[in-house]
């Protein structure tokens, strides 16, 4: 087929569509793949601002004969949302709930709304959309309709197809209509009107009639048949439902503009029963017996291999601790109108199967928090199994087959034999066992010709196996490219011919997501990797010890799960939450870095480290490290960004902010010459604005105030004798830049509390620094030199094993994480990583048994620093606050938005504040006047103070020290803490005038000397 006129197409889209039209290399690279094994470079990307604009985009593409691909969350695992087409991303703007009818229990939505957001808006009506896939935090309803998504709750509510009432559709050739169940009389009316819609309905009538017996006989009678088109929805007994026939068509037939959905009540009570088994096959065998005695809302399975991976990765350990004895488990959840009812259902099942709640292989819970933890562990399966610690990468391809539940155990045994035959080891087997759906990820060898041949042979054999069981190639994720070529093995030639006729009826030019389901691309074509993939292998600064010392493997951690597109909870990804842009998500940036490696002939990024597109995508990365902990596969975008910046600016002049803020520790030390003068200059009228412009600092961001006396000056004046490093009571208090030069009261408070707990505090006598600001700006050579000097100074303490206590979380995280990755061969760096502790860790785990923190008996709103969330965690802080009788509300509102130098840099202020306003700042404003506001991170404290909250945040060390002095005031207790005051208006003007006078005098002197020379 002749390629479209891309230049003309782009111009037409820009002229006609109210939306963002992007045909640049960066945008195309960000959408080059989804969660699958496949990769196809888009022609361009359109982000419509309205549904009408999206429809106009399809019309423009039709005029240019350009393929179209609708996309929501882009999490498809079978390659449905990657294509050489114009990608229409509905998720940024077309995400409204158009209407809700609580009495009819229906709603109308636009295709881009995320499931969790829809359910949040329905919560006041105590209603929800029933199907809930594991990607519920970021999957769009349009994508759920396209894939016929299910999730664990399908046990109670069915698949998406069972919950769609009507669809507003648009065909490639311009037919627009609402479709749904259609009576014979309605079909006669449509036929009488004539036109293209009449032609479509006549064709549907013909297909349903001609293939009626084939459909009834050839479609598996199982709860999880997702493969193929839903021709069964056109049967007379199913109401000739055109909407449901289009669900699961993966964008290959029509564009869905709006959807009317059926809703279900939110069950007020739940309970969870977990049953242990010797192996996953035995668990599968028992499913039918369980279902004979109960009707659960979920019946999920988890095997010992997944539990092992979780333990090795240190993930979901709380959930694993709740599991009863066994090597595989079935999780049976009940829902109902009362707690007695759901508890009774669980106990009735136990009696029926001859088990007891007290048995070692049984665990029962009617605690919602506990249940949520357990089910989250099961939901995490894809991420946990994608990058197992044994470094054998696993892939999709046969990740959601389904069979009749009564044959599940035998199918699992045969599937395991197939794994063994192909030497694929022991992939984890888990999933929605109550409906016979099995999830797994398999270590296919997708980088070599032999491995790809085996991949194809395995899929063919597995397809034949599942068909022999009367099952479905897909029980949840759809066909796409992974299974499109295999449909004949499941349905036979005649039904697959019917699929082709349906495709030709709706899309005769084959422009709607071509190459999927009908006339599919081969299962081993257009691979993201493949035997021809030859990525660059660049020399790097970081060692990537957890990625086989490979930057490429670090980039490939992203498998497209898309949790970074979630709208709430955790930290990842603040820039996406503020912009709703794919390229500003962890996944989008990973895609561009993958393209930068130039492994394919059509890679969108050709200029490597110098790439402007990659730089622009990384520019709004806050380097918060949230992805390192929140991403299921542990992508560390902050490290990848630092690496990129180091190479991007190598041998080039850097942005002014890199010199101003990247070298902050040096400027802070120099401020000691005249701190008052420095503060006056930084806040002087005119002069401050000029200074910010020269330093690359955003004009809207006030400069922080240097303290008149630094912590080190206070320490020296105190004259404390340095303790013996070998004394077990000795601790080194790390004098970070922020607690030393800006908020010294924190370090002073820490000394008081640590000494009160019986420790002997030492402070390094020579200047030291962790190198944080150089790392975050990509000045890694300098950072390494700084770290080496620091290590030299700390050597006596490192050799003695003396604990090093960090107060600033970002600096502590450098020692725990960044430094060992930057200098993995340096044993002292490794020793320091093991010896550094947070303030709370030292007091909770190492203080004398008889020491107790002072009693506060206060409420506190607590913001956790992102680096602490990602690296050190917050458990010790929670425990220390509990012991101090602090009623702590630890926020789960994400990043504060300042993130070190990020929020100060020119061009970042708007995003910085948008991130903060998504949760942190509103939560602080709502804090009671007598409560405490805690934030150990300097960035968090600064953002709270500058964010119009009327409050000032304290470090936990300050709070404990203040409590040692007595009761805190009832109103805004933070006012007792010492903070350097901003220079007075008079001081600012005097400084400005003085500097102006000095500048004038210098200029006059220079002019006089020049006149004398002439």
Strand-pairing-aware structural class: alpha/beta
Strand order of the largest sheet: 5-6-10-8-9
Q: What separation lies between the terminal Cα atoms?
A: 77 Å
The portion of residues forming beta strands comes to 5-15%
Helical stretch tally: 45
The Rg value, from CA coordinates, equals 31 Å
Q: What number is the mean pLDDT?
A: 95
Largest sheet: 5 strands, antiparallel
Shape: globular
- Stretches where pLDDT is under 50 for at least 5 consecutive residues are none
Considering DSSP H and I runs of 4 or more, what fraction of the residues is helical?
40-55%
Using DSSP, what is the number of strands?
Answer: 25
Q: What do these coordinates show?
A:
56% of the residues are buried. The chain has 45 helices and 25 strands. The radius of gyration is 31 Å and the shape is globular. The N and C termini lie far apart (77 Å). The longest helix is centred in the last third of the chain and has 29 residues, at 985-1013. The protein is α/β, with parallel strands linked by helices and 1014 residues long. A five-stranded antiparallel β-sheet has the order 5-6-10-8-9. A four-stranded mixed β-sheet has the order 1-2-4-3, covered by helices on one side.
Quick description:
This protein is 43% helix and 11% strand.
Q: Which descriptors would you attach to this protein?
A:
single chain, 1014 residues, alpha/beta, four-stranded mixed sheet, 45 helices
